Amino acid sequence: MITGPTFEEMLHPDRIAPAVRQQALKMREVDPLDPINLYNITWRGGDNKIYYFVLPKQLTGVDANIVVLYGREFPSGSHKVGAAYSVLLEKELYGEVDPNIHTLVWPSTGNYGIGGAWVGCRMGCKSLVVLPEGMSQERFDRIHSYGAEIIRTYGSESNVKEIYDETHRLRAGNPNVRILNQFEVMGNYRFHYYVTGNTIVELAAELQQRGIGDGRAAAFVSAMGSGGTIAAGDRLKQVWPDHKIVGLEPIQCPTLYNNGYGTHDIQGIGDKHVTWIHNVWNMDALMCLDDIEVKKGLQVFAEEAGRSTLVGRYGIDAAWVEEVYSLLGISSICNILGAIKTARYYGYGKDDVIYTIATDGLDRYHSVMDAMAETYGRLDEAAAVGRVESIFRGQRTDWIQPGTPENRTRWHNLKYYTWVEQQGKTVEELDAQRNPAWWEAHQRMVADIDARLLEYRRQTAQG
């Protein structure tokens, strides 16, 4: 098997063997497709600093500090590669996947499929990505460039049922197919619980030393695609029991909010079902965002007139704008707007820090931004000011549902229709998720997985 880092090494890459770490950092620039780049799956750069930025309050219009961890520096350009790697590594270590025999199928609406293509092919596996035909062209191009095959299914972001149907067909037709379903497999949950969650715990302490916040994470805000990223909040709530976990959905497809359906274009979130790996029992609030507002917000960063307005009219540091704008994709803006909404809803102030994620960068959405410009026109200063004032600084506290016991029960019960009726789970398995012990048992598996990988290394070294 070709393997990479342990969970602990993804959290603390300075604990990777120095020769391996240096080679990985070198090949990141020389050959990003070399398997040694598996050791670059981490929230930290070669200087061991975390990938993050703090949003200027001139943009957010709130007193709370909003900190954004960004995933563009991960291999494949998104932190979803970490989830894909963790899922495949676990399957191999537990003997469920043999790269010499099995074909891996990565069901996705984008970044997980891209990450699966990158990881699977780097780890010597034949990989096939199933995703909707309506996703951005950049996604398809990236998957092909990593050496994976693609099956395009009907629809767009919210057509996950069609993806499932295709994976059922593939599994039925070939006993050597292995479905690595991000919406179901707990390796996705574990990566974000342990690596993303603990990275934020450590960042909170670093920021306090710099005079930002009081050393806590007041809230973690994340849209739900697979339900993996929001698992970081489970770790944060263990450290700070009063911490708030806020989930985000598109207004156009408000599945948890009101059992809704529809089609939306915040690529990467809101897939018209409640994922198996989403711990809804820990979610403190559910908030909905308008997909058009989100894409209009991204235009402010994507277009030169928007960036110039941020600097000239709002006094935001030009170097900050130049550094950050390419780090933002559609779901990144969704998460940022959700963080602003969270600050307003809970009344957070200058000592509070809200954390969120920029999943991927602008490079995946140039075609979407071109389409937006055709529909709504290019920005000038007046239009950019209007968007900053209405979308960012004027973010409203509508479309919010608190995590009451009744709402959490309803969110949980919605899993039945996908997972028991369609995907073969039992009622007993679903009921088990009501107990915190079910989630804690999966969290504890991190130690066993790391121990198995270290033992595999030892045996391999001995020949």
Largest sheet: 7 strands, mixed
Distance between the ends = 13 Å
Instruction: Tell how many strands the DSSP assignment holds.
Output: 11
Task: Supply the CATH class of the domain at 52-76 and 192-416.
Answer: Alpha Beta
Shape: globular
CATH topology (fold) name of the domain at 52-76 and 192-416: Rossmann fold
The appropriate CATH architecture of the domain at 52-76 and 192-416 is: 3-Layer(aba) Sandwich
Radius of gyration of CA atoms, rounded to a whole number: 21 Å
Overall average pLDDT: 94
The helix content, as a percent range, equals 40-55%
Structural class: alpha/beta
The strands making up the biggest β-sheet line up spatially as 1-2-10-7-8-9-11
Strand residue percentage: 5-15%
| Helix count from the secondary structure assignment | 20
Poorly predicted sequence stretches spanning 5 or more consecutive residues = none
Q: What this model shows, in words?
A:
The chain is an alpha/beta fold and 463 residues long. Among the domains are: 47 residues, no CATH class; 250 residues, Rossmann fold (3-Layer(aba) Sandwich). It has 20 helices and eleven strands. The chain has a seven-stranded mixed β-sheet. α8 packs across α20. The protein is globular and about 65 Å long.
